Amino acid sequence: MKLSSVTIATLAAASPVTAWYMTFYDNTNFCKVDEETEYQILEGNKFDCNTFGASMDGVDCVHFIEGGHCRDLGIDKNPGQCGSTLEGQNPDYIRSFRCCSTGKMTVRTAFVGLVCAGLATAVRYNDNQVALTKDGEEAAKNFPEVKQIDLQSPAFLNPESIPAGFDNGTSGPTSDATLNYFLESLASRNDWLTYNNPSFKSDERRSIPYVYLSTSSQPEVKANSSSSEKLRVYLQGGVHGNEPGGDQALLALLGKFDANSTWAASILEKMDIMILPRYNPDGVAYFQRFLATGYDPNRDHIRFASQQTREVKALIIDFAPHVMVDAHEYSANRAYGLKDQWAQAVDGQFDPMKNLNIHKDIREYSEEVFVPRIAGAMDKLNLRWSPYITGNAREEPLVFTQLDTQARAGDVSLALTQVMVFLTETRGIGLGSQHFQRRVASGLTMIEAIVQTAADKAEEVYEVVEGARQKFIDGIDEVVVTDSFQPTNRIWDFIDLPTGKLVEIPVQFLSSTPVKSNLTRSRPEAYIFPQAWKEAADRLRLNGVTVENIRSEFRGEVEAYNVTSIELASTVYQGTVLNKVTTEIKKKEITMPAGSFWVPTRQAAAGYAFTVLEPENIDSYATFNILPVNVGDEYPVYRVLG
Description:
This protein is α+β, with helices and mostly antiparallel strands and about 650 residues long. One of its GO terms (molecular function) is zinc ion binding.
């Protein structure tokens, strides 16, 4: 789709002024400049000029940026940075900007009267790359290479294989062909590694290879909780295609196994491992966060809109892991503070899953045993770390929110089947090739610490997870429908953007360790709903939930939900409009015919069923309009009490 451009305003100004340059990146297609006389913004893309912290006296000019430098009238210098929060944006999709102060100079053309309201993120087919926002010279000094780590992944073993676009943020460092050759080479010389190229493909028919690591005589990818007493660990990266630190860290882990057979044997004696290094090859091909369809692959675990999401989820559920790691990168130079004066300085963020429908034994063991060991591994290499957070940029004091509990994310959805799951994030989005050795070293350090801890305590981890599953199945704990964060205060590592120096800034920290339960309900023995809603049953099964069809008519008392209010979101999200629902529960007698769907709650995956079937949950089938309701309706799912 081609967008037409609309001229906003031009004005001649001959006197010397102090100018701020709000620099848009030419690969975002937000704005374009016709020499020095006409400034244009592409139709459908508006921005709020006042969010940039620049003086708006009719002398503000939009200019391009190249390679981290301002370009105008021969100026080429490292600018001071001031990123921006754009009003109305989902934090996952905020674009990065820079402002460049150039001192006194003559500006011939400027914006006047530019009145704009929040920028709407425009998703285009295969053209969703984020802005290149490399660290300035002083800031870069805070991110030296990690000399203690020799990385054995394709980008470091064969740097000549790195595409030219990696430097400017338009490509990842490792092509699919290079990745496949690397994996096949490892398999050819190691009996304990099996290369798999499954029959299912990405949405654009690219391969999604994975490897299976085991010293068992008969390695088997499919498993279940009763097939073996050996710990099973699943590692994935490349869920978002513009986060190369994730898949490269997993390739580096494989390279380390290959280079150190003694260490590999010590790990594989205790566990079997499945590694899917590149979940989203289409996203990698276009160096964009999204799938080729424009869906976010890490927000597709309620609707399962992509067939690729369904196929990969089936692979993971078949493997039935006890431990999982999901490796990502976070935006490096997103600026915080009222003057856009700070950017996060932590090399790695990590967190175990927090949803209260995960058994407390799994949550507590993750926090008490794994987290200190990951932190210790980072500290040993002088790598800065923190819990995973999101935050609003243009506010003070700063407010950071820890990892949420939403099952729409792949990691949380799997954890709700009673799996010990960890998210890792390295500082990297928007940096191009900058600091890549440190980024991959940070990712590898976190992942290796998790794998090593699981191996060191393999029997204990196995017993904790399997024991928690049985306790969860037998338990009588209430279902947690909604939750909230608990505020506290912390000190955070930042880069001071004007100087490039490391600083520590206090933040209000909305903690999810643990979250506070708000709305809870008694645990039903089962949920029952009409066979007309087959799509709901199919989606439950995709996440490992057992759903049965009753053989004979059901008659009995149930709890029914009467919808008392709805609130529709103002924008489309993942192909639907979210619906915030409230209900009141009433007991009633119902009759359901043979063939109706029955979801028993005495199963390990019931935590996911609680999340999607209780209508007030932020990820329920009512919220996502899989089971659409309006005020006054009776929600078509019923709670069968014991």
